[in-house]
Design goal:
This protein has helices at about 10-30, 60-65, 80-90, 105-135; strands spanning about 30-40, 45-50, 55-60, 70-75, 95-100. The protein is of the alpha+beta class.
């Protein structure tokens, strides 16, 4: 029995969907600023997407959030990620901690893992096919 072609595998289409989503998220972040914020009584955190980067920020609520609780903001980009990180760095409050991850650091490992998975599945199916033909 011949193995199914790889374009019929669920893992192939799932990988394409994930890579398509990551590509869309990168493209969308170039023109918009999207933020999810949670502010408690003593601390606040925020996940922000813009300029092809994801930023994780934690600090005092007065610096990061304007309202207590959960909030979601999506707006046309007015500032760049570099300007925002410079503001956090120069903040007179040293209570802001942040780090940013460029999209390329997320996309390349996902793409490499997906390609390795597809290559392994193809190798395995060919090996099983060869073993089945040899046993006949």
């Amino acid at each position: 029995m011949l193995p199914r072609p790889f374009h019929r595998w669920k893992s192939f289409w799932l990988g394409l969907f994930v890579l398509g989503f990551l590509s869309w998220a990168w493209w969308d972040s170039l023109g918009t600023d999207t933020r999810v914020t949670h502010a408690g009584p003593n601390t606040a955190w925020q996940v922000s997407r813009m300029d092809g980067h994801t930023a994780f920020v934690a600090g005092r609520p007065a610096i990061i959030a304007k309202i207590p609780g959960w909030s979601f903001h999506r707006e046309k980009k007015r500032r760049s990620m570099a300007e925002l990180t410079n503001d956090w760095r120069r903040s007179r409050h040293a209570d802001v901690r942040y780090f940013t991850i460029p999209d390329i650091i997320i996309v390349v490992p996902c793409f490499a893992a997906w390609l390795n998975w597809i290559a392994w599945r193809m190798w395995r199916s060919q090996r099983l096919e060869t073993r089945d033909l040899a046993s006949r």
